[in-house]
């Protein structure tokens, strides 16, 4: 309680000081100021300006975050009596702007009325929407009431702010990860707001320049990743095999994996994030606001001619999944070699993937040879043997709970089985150690919700436009990449815990049979 009071007083003091000093004097930009501002470089200019505007009012950021925690807790309690699949359905229904309100306002709907409403929404959600509108109408009503109540409270929070700032917050609510980052790193948000208030034109100029530089660097990284996959059939084969396994573990059937999306569908894919107010399902132990199809996480898809089309680097979720389990290093060592080659070729890269890769090298440096990073000819085999050693130690000693000391002891007793590994166990000095970041602790992957591709979306026809979540027509693929860059850079300056939805009760057995067609995993 004392901590909350201190934070509240700090925010009041900062806000009051800003209000009393509209023309603040110039002061030199600190290293922390620059880092905090540069972390926003990958966002589109309209999003950056909204963030700058919001950062000038840290008290509003805190109040909005508090409202989110309360609302997500109420939503969790509201859906808590449903089983896990049904809860997932209700979270998914809340992702689509205005959908639940359209389903319930004015009373129950006929089939024709429901179909008319859903013509403006993607195919992926239509069957679930119809099922719950028919079988769980009262629950949808309660969700709609909670949404209306929250909207009113949100508007009250921003009521006294300038109109431009109100619009900024309304837009940022549609980008939930950004608001979460601002709350998690409030001190850096205050720095950004202070600097922007003092000299907005200089900050805008600095950000425009940084955007050009970071965009070019990111484009170069993606181009190099694609070229390496193209030039290395072993890496491409491992990526495909790992991608199939990742998809299967996340609930996709082989038929769904083999479904070929059209290029238009991939290029124009619209991701509807989980509602900021209701949060993402609480069983995810990490920030997960943007559900994407598996091919987005894997960074590729196969076209109708059987060609691998690389669309970018894999997501943090796929990368963490690959490096978490030693079976993957053993089965797909050329993919690990590709990761090492890429991220040690871009030592200044600050992304979630970069931290995962460097953490893996650091965790295994006792087993890696001195020339691990430089010796490309043997690196894949070294990765395979590291994976084999971990798997063997787990089988011999007792599963995933093997301690580093037990693994080291096993390795010393069986060193002859792994000829490419470091027999002296001296820490590798050639593998550069990336500074550990608390936000990228080693976390066990959690099953992601499968985002289905309908057969209509596998044909070369542009998808029917759906309602945009705000006045801005955001490309969420780019927003997601920018958010990863933003989060990684701010975490590098000031580590902080991730925002999580409020704890919710464990999913309960169904009160009734799941609505027909309502569940996505049956």
Descriptive notes:
It is a single chain. Helix content is 58%, strand content 1%. It is mainly alpha-helical and 522 residues long. It folds into two domains: 181 residues, no CATH class; 268 residues, no CATH class. A two-stranded antiparallel sheet has the order 1-2. A hairpin with a 5-residue loop joins β1 and β2. α2 packs across α12. The longest helix is centred in the middle third of the chain and has 32 residues. The radius of gyration is 24 Å and the shape is globular.
Average pLDDT over all residues: 80
For the largest beta sheet, what order do the strands appear in spatially?
Answer: 1-2
Order of helices and strands: HHHHHHHHHHHHHHHHHEEHHHHHHH
- The total number of structural domains is 2
Structural class: mainly alpha
* Number of helices, counting only DSSP H or I runs of 4 residues or more: 24
Oligomer: single chain
Tell me the number of strands: 2
Give the amount of beta strand, in percent. Answer: under 5%
Main β sheet profile: 2 strands, antiparallel
Shape: globular
Low-confidence stretches: 1-10, 12-24, 426-440, 459-472, 495-522
Helix percent reads 55-70%
Radius of gyration: 24 Å
User: How far is it from the N-terminal to the C-terminal residue, by CA?
Assistant: 45 Å
Keywords:
mainly alpha, 24 helices, 2 strands
């Amino acid at each position: 309680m004392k901590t909350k009071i201190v934070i509240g007083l700090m925010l009041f003091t900062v806000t009051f000081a800003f209000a009393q000093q509209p023309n603040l004097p110039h002061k030199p930009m600190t290293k922390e100021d620059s880092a905090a501002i540069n972390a926003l470089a990958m966002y589109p200019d309209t999003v950056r300006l909204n963030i700058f505007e919001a950062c000038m009012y840290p008290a509003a950021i805190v109040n909005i975050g508090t409202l989110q925690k309360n609302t997500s807790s109420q939503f969790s309690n509201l859906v808590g009596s449903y089983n896990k699949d049904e809860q997932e359905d209700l979270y998914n229904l809340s992702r689509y702007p205005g959908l639940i309100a359209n389903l319930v306002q004015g009373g129950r709907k006929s089939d024709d009325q429901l179909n008319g409403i859903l013509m403006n929404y993607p195919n992926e959600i239509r069957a679930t929407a119809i099922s719950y509108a028919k079988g769980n109408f009262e629950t949808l009503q309660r969700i709609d009431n909670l949404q209306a109540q929250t909207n009113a409270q949100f508007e009250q929070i921003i009521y006294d702010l300038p109109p431009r700032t109100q619009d900024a917050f309304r837009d940022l609510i549609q980008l939930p990860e950004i608001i979460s980052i601002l709350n998690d790193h409030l001190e850096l948000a205050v720095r950004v707001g202070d600097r922007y208030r003092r000299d907005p034109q200089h900050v805008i100029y600095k950000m425009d320049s940084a955007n050009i530089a970071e965009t070019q660097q990111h484009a170069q990284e993606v181009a190099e990743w694609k070229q390496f996959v193209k030039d290395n059939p072993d890496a491409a084969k491992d990526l495909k095999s790992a991608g199939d396994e990742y998809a299967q573990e996340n609930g996709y059937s082989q038929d769904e994996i083999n479904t070929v999306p059209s290029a238009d569908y991939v290029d124009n894919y619209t991701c509807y994030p989980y509602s900021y107010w209701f949060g993402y399902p609480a069983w995810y132990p990490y920030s997960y606001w943007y559900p994407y199809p598996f091919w987005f996480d894997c960074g590729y898809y196969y076209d109708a001619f059987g060609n691998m089309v690389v669309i970018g680097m894999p997501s943090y979720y796929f990368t963490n999944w690959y490096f978490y389990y030693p079976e993957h290093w053993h089965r797909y060592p050329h993919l690990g070699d590709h990761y090492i080659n890429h991220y040690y070729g871009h030592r200044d890269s600050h992304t979630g993937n970069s931290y995962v890769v460097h953490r893996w090298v650091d965790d295994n440096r006792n087993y890696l040879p001195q020339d691990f990073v430089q010796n490309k000819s043997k690196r894949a085999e070294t990765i395979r043997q590291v994976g084999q050693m971990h798997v063997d130690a787990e089988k011999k000693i007792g599963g995933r709970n093997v301690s580093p000391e037990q693994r080291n002891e096993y390795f010393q007793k069986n060193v002859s089985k792994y000829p490419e590994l470091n027999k002296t166990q001296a820490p590798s000095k050639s593998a550069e150690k990336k500074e550990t970041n608390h936000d990228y602790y080693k976390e066990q992957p959690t099953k992601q919700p499968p985002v289905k591709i309908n057969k209509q979306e596998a044909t070369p026809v542009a998808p029917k436009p759906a309602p945009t979540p705000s006045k801005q027509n955001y490309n969420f693929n780019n927003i997601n990449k920018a958010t990863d860059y933003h989060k990684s850079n701010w975490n590098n300056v000031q580590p902080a815990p991730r925002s999580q939805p409020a704890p919710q009760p464990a999913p309960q057995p169904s009160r009734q049979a799941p609505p027909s067609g309502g569940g996505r995993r049956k």
